[in-house]
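Quiz preparation item.
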């Protein structure tokens, strides 16, 4: 049997051995310090200090405190009793301090940053709006000062001279440094004069000297007077610019005079930036004939990191190397485009640079090797495999986009809130009516004829839509996706017909129509186009199907929805081209020009079967002897040629290539303007 641990008798413990050793050396007042709490991550932290009387060292601890030892070994009642004794003993000196978790976190974070940089925090200054508010709010200024003082009494508190912050710090006898801007005027409350005011800046050097002397004299009164006893000398000068050599693939190579605090990023702007062939990933800094490091602009552009940037010195050389290879990334990412990659970078790094996948992306990635050579050179990757896939020059990456089903019902007529509403399976008519009318509005309900509700429903056979008369007083009628409900006025059995127009129109919304309302009438009623509207770029949907129109005398019908497109400067090239997607629009260019911009015809293209679809929905084929005019916002479709032999005769990869190419035509049509901009930079 294991022996029980022997706990020494408290009476046998020499509680003051340490004190007697120090007394023998002449140190009579010793302070014991301890802390309790959940630490800086959970806070707060409570710290206490105590000085016990000298006579206890000689005579021993009083009988009333004989039980005092480790507080964690005492019962709650004993702790409370002992606390009353200690608190009531005038010969015991003690102090307690509490520091909130928020203050601890702030100081710890600041100290950790300083530690990483092998520095020590010596000064503290509130930042931004907090500093401005504390300048004129004595309560806030006192709170900030106390927090800093409790953490470290040796910290130097940087305060605007003449402010409430300075007053609060002086009351605590803190170490302060009074901040004065030589080129800025101050308000009476200590705040800087807003830059929006004409007298915010001091531009005259002599006035700046007088300004600084005036501010300092509030702190050091001996600076002024008939016979000043203190003196201050102020010298104003300009920082000397430095000469830096920018060579390689920059737009304006040569020696540039730049600001002495410039780094590589800011310096490159003065050299006109990097040209279209230059690398953004490897920019070398040469100093005294030796390379001292390189800068990757992607860290700055896409991740916001400036840690690796280098401050430039006089006669530094900035060398921008040529770009090694770029990878096209299309489909379901936040920023599709062409991206420069360096050796041994993985596919997940590329996707992270592009902002990550979006909500519409699939779980697989299509990888094409060596660009347009699709035969037996590409394959599918799962998202879980991208970390280990190293990108090679010539790779082309596409992330398919999952189709989105638009599920909605529409209501118009005598309702308060006409328009589209999200559809859910099992949705009832009364739910929609309550959302669009508000059934408890008695006055409005008196104008509504619920017995004359018309439900326009898409006909399964594809012909004219079904018109279903419903008694809304029942309200239990079940809706289906795409239903359009029309409500009549009580005094008018003919329903109020309406259409909805959105997009680049001055007054979008729902408008009443009749059988004689034309597109031109609606455009006039809606205030006309905005200055961003695409010429002829009006999409018209009828029964959820996009229809074509020719002239503005096109007549509208109940339930039509219209969308006025925005100018993009783009043309969509889809189908059998090597790089399907958006390309830049240039007035006068032919269909051939746009296909060339999209990488030319693919190996499966039928070059004689090309169709152009205009923004208004009309489609015109390209004929052998003529080519229709291309308008901004048009879509050019290059169809696939008919393959010889049966479908079973194709290899597995050939069959996959055909299928994936067709799917890619739809997916890549969703590329954003970012892709165009990136293309233009190449």
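Solution:
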């Amino acid at each position: 049997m294991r022996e029980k641990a022997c706990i020494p008798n408290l009476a046998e413990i020499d509680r003051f051995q340490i004190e007697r050793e120090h007394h023998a050396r002449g140190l009579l007042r010793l302070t014991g310090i301890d802390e309790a709490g959940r630490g800086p991550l959970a806070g707060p932290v409570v710290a206490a200090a105590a000085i016990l009387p000298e006579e206890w060292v000689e005579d021993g601890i009083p009988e009333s405190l004989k039980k005092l030892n480790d507080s964690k070994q005492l019962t709650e009642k004993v702790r409370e009793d002992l606390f009353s004794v200690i608190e009531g003993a005038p010969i015991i000196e003690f102090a307690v301090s509490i520091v909130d978790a928020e203050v601890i976190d702030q100081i710890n974070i600041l100290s950790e940053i300083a530690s990483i940089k092998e520095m020590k925090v010596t000064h503290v200054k509130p930042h931004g709006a907090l500093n401005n508010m504390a300048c004129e709010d004595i309560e806030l200024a006192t709170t900030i000062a106390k927090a800093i003082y409790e953490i470290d009494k040796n910290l130097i508190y940087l305060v605007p001279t003449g402010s409430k912050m300075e007053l609060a710090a002086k009351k605590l006898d803190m170490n302060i440094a009074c901040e004065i801007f030589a080129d800025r005027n101050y308000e009476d409350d200590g705040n800087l004069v807003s830059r929006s005011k004409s007298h915010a800046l001091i531009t005259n050097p002599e006035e700046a000297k007088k300004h600084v002397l005036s501010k300092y004299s509030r702190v050091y009164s001996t600076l002024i007077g008939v016979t000043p006893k203190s003196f201050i000398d102020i010298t104003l000068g300009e920082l000397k610019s430095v000469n830096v050599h920018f060579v390689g693939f920059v737009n304006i190579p040569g020696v540039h005079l730049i600001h002495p605090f410039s780094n590589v990023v800011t310096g490159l702007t003065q050299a006109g930036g990097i040209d279209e062939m230059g690398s953004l990933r490897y920019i070398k800094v040469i100093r005294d004939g030796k390379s001292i490091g390189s800068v990757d602009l992607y860290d700055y552009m896409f991740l916001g990191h400036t840690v690796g940037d280098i401050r430039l010195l006089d006669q530094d050389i900035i060398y921008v190397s040529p770009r090694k290879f770029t990878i096209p990334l299309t489909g379901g990412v936040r920023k599709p485009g062409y991206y420069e990659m360096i050796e041994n970078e993985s596919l997940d790094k590329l996707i992270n640079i592009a902002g990550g996948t979006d909500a519409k992306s699939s779980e697989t990635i299509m990888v094409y090797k060596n660009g347009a050579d699709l035969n037996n050179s590409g394959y599918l990757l799962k998202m879980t495999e991208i970390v280990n896939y190293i990108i090679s020059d010539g790779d082309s990456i596409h992330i398919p986009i999952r189709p989105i089903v638009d599920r909605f019902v529409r209501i118009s007529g005598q309702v308060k809130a006409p328009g589209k509403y999200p559809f859910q399976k099992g949705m009832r008519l009364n739910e929609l009516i309550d959302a669009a009318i508000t059934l408890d509005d008695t006055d409005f309900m008196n104008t509504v004829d619920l017995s004359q509700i018309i439900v326009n429903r898409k006909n399964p056979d594809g012909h004219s839509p079904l018109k279903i008369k419903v008694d809304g007083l029942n309200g239990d009628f079940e809706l289906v996706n795409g239903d359009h409900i029309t409500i009549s006025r009580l005094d008018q059995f003919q329903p109020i017909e309406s259409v909805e127009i959105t997009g680049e129109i001055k007054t979008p919304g729902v408008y009443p129509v009749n059988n004689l309302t034309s597109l031109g009438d609606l455009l006039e009623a809606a205030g006309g186009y905005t200055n961003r509207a695409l010429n002829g770029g009006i999409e018209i949907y009828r029964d959820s199907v996009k229809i074509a129109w020719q002239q503005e005398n096109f007549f509208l019908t109940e339930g039509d929805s219209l969308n006025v497109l925005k100018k993009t400067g783009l043309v969509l090239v889809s189908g059998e081209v090597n790089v399907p997607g958006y390309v830049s629009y240039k007035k006068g260019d032919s269909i051939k020009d746009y296909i060339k911009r999209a990488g030319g015809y693919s190996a499966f293209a039928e070059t004689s079967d090309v169709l152009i679809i205009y923004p208004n929905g009309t489609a015109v084929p390209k004929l052998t002897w003529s080519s229709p005019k291309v308008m901004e916002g048009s879509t050019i479709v290059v169809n696939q040629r008919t393959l010889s032999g049966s479908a079973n005769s194709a290899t597995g990869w050939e069959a996959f290539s055909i299928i994936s190419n067709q799917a890619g035509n739809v997916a890549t049509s969703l590329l954003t303007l970012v892709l165009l901009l990136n293309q233009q930079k190449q």
